[in-house]
Amino acid sequence: MQTILDEDGLVVKTIAVNHGPGALVPALAFRIEYKGKSIVYSGDTNSVTDNMILLAQDADVLIYDTAIMDDAPSAEDDPVFFALHTTPTRLGQVAVASGAKRLILSHITPVTEGRLGEVKKIVRGQGYRGKVKAARDLMVINVGEIGDRPRFRKMIER
């Protein structure tokens, strides 16, 4: 893990993640910290290493690649696509091991779009007990004092 910015209380860290076979598709994940709060973004990754667990330790929000299912596309049918992304099972394992408080499912593809309920169930089946939401365009996630107040929480979780 490397700190790429540390200025006026804002800290941005990055770590290499696997996005495909070997070094053919280099990728980075990011952690943004400010005023004791943290957001981690996986980008595209197959999560075969524990780098996401390391980066996401105790994150307030973990935004994660949700492009494939455990069974579709299958590694036999589309080995490249399967090698590029994280299965819901692995996503749940990383969320549990990292202790992330909230999980936002992003990079939703036609493969996962109609099966987000199943994705959430698989993640929960790994033992994750935090909040799980699917990302949507222009979605706002408040992290911190305003988002933690009960009267605002209802507005941001609809």
Characteristic terms for this protein:
alpha/beta; 30% helix; seven-stranded mixed sheet
Topology:
Layout: E1 2-7, E2 10-18, E3 26-34, E4 37-41, H1 51-55, E5 61-65, H2 79-84, H3 88-98, E6 102-106, H4 110-113, H5 116-125, E7 131-134, H6 145-148, H7 150-156
Parallel strand pairs: 4-5, 5-6, 6-7
Antiparallel strand pairs: 1-2, 2-3, 3-4
Task: Give an account of the 3D structure.
With 158 residues, this protein is of the alpha/beta class. It has seven helices and seven strands. A seven-stranded mixed beta sheet has the order 1-2-3-4-5-6-7. Helix 1 links the parallel strand 4 and strand 5. Helix 3 (88-98) crosses helix 5 (116-125). The N and C termini lie far apart (35 Å).
Order of helices and strands: EEEEHEHHEHHEHH
Shape: globular
User: Strand fraction band?
Assistant: 25-35%
Question: Number of helix segments?
Answer: 7
CATH architecture: 4-Layer Sandwich
Which CATH C-level class is it?
A: Alpha Beta
Radius of gyration: 16 Å
Q: What name is given to the CATH topology? A: Metallo-beta-lactamase, Chain A
Helix content: 25-40%
Describe the biggest sheet?
A: 7 strands, mixed
Question: What's the arrangement of strands in the largest beta sheet?
Answer: 1-2-3-4-5-6-7
Number of self-contained structural domains: 1
Summarize the structure.
30% of the residues lie in helices and 27% in strands. It contains 7 helices and 7 strands.
